[in-house]
From TrEMBL:
Transmembrane segments: none annotated. It holds the Pfam family MADF_DNA_bdg. Residues 59-118 are annotated as: Disordered. Residues 2-63 form the MADF domain. Residues 100-110 have a biased composition (Polar residues). It comes from Arctia plantaginis (Wood tiger moth). This is MADF domain-containing protein.
Length: 132
């Protein structure tokens, strides 16, 4: 469903297709947030696009400054594009480096970042298959 976020996609301006795509994404996302709406999904996509562009600007700025490769900025956010790139690289959950849960700071709800990361990677391929 890159036509939902990729402006250069040929179906980006196809409103009926985009509406159906948002509906499908909403059904999937409701497993995480029962109160989600299409507006929520659109906001999430806009946030991902904004974060992607910010990270891209950081990388481009670090390349233009002439900094050595050890000082170059690297993207730190997960984006639809990075997920698609990773999908092609037959990576599995075993390839994900992990740290002991006790060594990672907990969030305000008491859930560890590591647990959320593992949950994301566990469901990543399943979600991508549903989106295509």
């Amino acid at each position: 469903m890159p036509y939902l976020w990729l402006k250069s996609h040929k179906d980006y301006s196809n409103q009926p297709l985009r509406t159906e795509g948002f509906r499908v994404l909403l059904e999937i996302y409701k497993t995480f947030d029962e109160k989600a709406t299409v507006k929520t999904i659109k906001q999430k996509l806009m946030n991902m696009r904004t974060n992607y562009n910010k990270e891209l600007a950081k990388v481009n700025a670090s390349q233009q400054t002439g900094a050595g490769t050890d000082k170059m900025s690297e993207p730190c956010r997960i984006t639809p594009e990075s997920i698609e790139d990773e999908e092609g690289s037959n990576s599995s959950d075993e390839d994900i480096p992990s740290q002991p849960i006790g060594s990672i700071a907990s969030t305000s709800r008491g859930h560890s970042v590591e647990k959320k990361k593992k949950h994301f990677y566990k469901n990543k391929k399943e979600l991508l298959n549903l989106l295509k």
